[in-house]
Amino acid sequence: MLKNQRQYIELVEELIEHDKHYYDEASPVISDYEYDRKMKQLIEYEKKHPEHVLAHSPSQRIGETATEGFVQREHIAPMMSLANTYSSDELADFIKRVHKGLEKKEILFSCELKMDGTAISLRYEKGRLVHAVTRGNGKVGDDVTANIKTIGSVPLKLTGHVPDVLEVRGEVYLSLATFEKLNAQREEEGLEPFANPRNAAAGSLKQLDPREVAKRKLNIMCYGIGEGQSPKSTQHETLEFLERAGLPVSKPHHRALCSNLEEIMEFAEKVHKERPKLPFEIDGIVVKIDELKFHQILGATGKTPRFAVAYKFAPEQAWTRILDITVQVGRTGTLTPVAELEPVFLAGSTISRATLHNQEEVARKDIRIGDCVAIEKGGDVIPKVVKVDFKKRPSSSKPWHMPTHCPACHASVVHHKGEVAVRCPNTRCTAQRMRRIQYFASKHAMDIEHMGEKVVEQLVERSLVTRVSDIYLLTPQDLARLDGFKEKSIRNLLYSIEQSKKCPLSRFIMALGIKYVGTETADLLASHVKDLDHLLSLSLDELLSLDGIGEKTAQALVSYFQDPDNLEEIHLLLSHGVSPERVKKHIISGHPFANKTFVLTGSLSHFTRDEASELIKQRGGKVSGSVSKNTDYVLVGEDPGSKYEKAKELGVAILSETQFKRMLD
Ligand code: IVH
Questions:
Q1: CB 259 within 8 A of CB 99
Q2: Residues 588-601, buried b or exposed e (16+ Cβ, 10 A)?
Q3: Does the pTM exceed 0.70?
Q4: C-alpha span between 634 and 616 (Å, rounded)
């Protein structure tokens, strides 16, 4: 029990110290239990004495409630990205350019780690954190202050003498250990794992409930100042100043002041060597001119400043041995060879499998069982085999061939002329069934939360689900047989199953898993037909008459709807209460979007892409996949891709999410 205000203030300071140990030094001095106990005392006192509550008290980090969405805020100084270099020659060109641009022989460069996370702007006014905003499209981002406050290493109040307005830029990231834990937990809960720590950090910042964000244990590294001026004249002193103000910056041995290419490369080498041992992911180093006044002089080209470049490292690789090559059967029967590896640690996780894509790829790289191979993690969770060390190949090894029979159902495999894929033709194959069920439950289809791949695997293994319609017959007793399923998880899953029954027709069509039918085709079909019966009755000619449906797709649809097994399954789904609905199209007449063609790029924060497309279509507009001179608008979200560049090149009108929202009504 805290007796008085003095003890309260002391506890606030003590907990701030503990946050520092936990986040900055990754070495907590008290147990989580002890920390929680102290925090509880603090909150109890604050409840009794609201007049004493300090704005920077650690209790203020945890928002009480979830929000409905994020407010958007403009960046007074745009948040740009960095030009990338991949070789010392490209770095040399950068150095030459700045020497020429500044007409100076001696220039110092501040070299730092390039953290692989997601950019953030922290605005402090009179030393207090007022807003934290994501990069967004560089000009406008989401206000995620409540989420950022959950990060223990972000000071709510700066220390020492700081300018009245200080807008700090940094990178929010997840440590590798936290990322591993988070993904393990997600898999247990039947949720899709995040592909990498960067996606996990960006995804976490977009959570609407700060209490959920607090559980993710995000971290931050600050690297500069945005709006306003640094009180220092150089980048390296700015970092020291930020550190003194209480903000987390790179450790001193992860920074260097270099005066030429050789010194920069030496630093890059040192960091590259240390990279596998770092507790977080980096994707290179950043080289910045140290003298800040030169930043202004050099200015920027488009989205990238001229004063700095990133020197990117190649993705991390690890060597290991292929113990076996197994074959995975996909939803449509495609056989994919998979390398079963001697477990090896790579970029934050232990890898024991890698995809080999297809038979042609295995032959092209001449990959064999017993080979010593280099594996690499791209942007995906599944790593790939990049090369073989032929010198280490066992003399007895033989080239690998795709089996002639399906490993799951033993049907003879088929290889259609002109196709790379080898397939199992048996639609009743057990492995195909399992994949179809996983696909049916997935996000793009029926979107049954908590029913991830691992959960489906268990349901199928225990014969609780053998066809998709069985999902809707599951009872609490059935689910109690799954590993780790207790009262709460059972309730969650049954609730998600129930929720999925009322679904848009387009997603139901997707969920059927018909060959060649992806989101666009499913949307097109759903908007063309009156209802499901109408869809089932469409002839080949009628399908072919639809703009956007080709011969192969039309044929696949007809044969799918002719198969009595498929029809029975659809009827079972309906009889178990699944009721796909055609989302009513209230076409809003005379809207400025009428007859306009849109292209979407980057991720939007208020809508999914499907929702934004639907809103456009409701207003008489069209959505296309690629930018051309016929495109009227490009709707640009966060981290836009090449479509954005193309739109600028062609002079197509660009809409931010805010402008789009304004134009909707
Ligand atoms: S300076 C003009 N320094 O890399 C932008 N950026 O493509 C100036 N990043 O989104 C950025 N570590 O969030 C800078 N030490 C560092 C960085 C860093 C990571 C991120 C940044 C930005 C991206 C640039």
A1: no
A2: eeebebeebbbbbb
A3: no
A4: 12
Superfamily of structural domain 5-61: Helix hairpin bin (1.10.287.610)
Residue 321 C-alpha to ligand 1 middle, in angstroms? 36
Q: Using DSSP, state whether 647 is helix, strand or coil.
A: helix
Both structure tokens of 426: 């048996």
Q: Where are the alpha helices (DSSP H) in 24-60?
A: 32-48
Looking at the chain, the whole-number percentage of residues with pLDDT higher than 70 is: 96
CA–centroid distance, 81 to ligand 1, in Å, is 7
Q: Is 82 in the pocket of ligand 1 (CB under 6 A)?
A: yes
User: Pairing between strand 72-74 and 83-85?
Assistant: unpaired
80 lines ligand 1 (CB under 6 A): yes
Ligand 1 contacts CB of residue 286 (under 6 A): yes
Kindly report, residue by residue over 164-207, the tens digit of the pLDDT: 999 999 999 999 889 988 888 877 776 777 878 888 999 899 88
Q: Determine the residue of 94, 168, 171, 198 to mutate for testing ligand 1's pocket, defined as the one with the most ligand atoms within 8 A of the Cβ atom.
A: 171
Per-residue pLDDT tens for 61-107? Answer: 765 555 667 888 999 999 999 999 989 999 999 999 999 999 988 99
Q: Is 114 a catalytic residue?
A: yes
C-alpha span between 256 and 153 (Å, rounded) = 23
Judging by DSSP bridges, how do beta strands 300-301 and 653-656 pair with one another?
Answer: unpaired
Q: Which of 3, 114, 215, 643 is catalytic?
A: 114
Question: Per CATH, which fold does 72-312 belong to?
Answer: D-amino Acid Aminotransferase; Chain A, domain 1 (3.30.470)
Class of domain 430-581: mainly alpha
CATH superfamily name and code, 317-392: Nucleic acid-binding proteins (2.40.50.140)
Span 486-512, pLDDT tens digits: 998 999 999 999 999 999 999 999 999
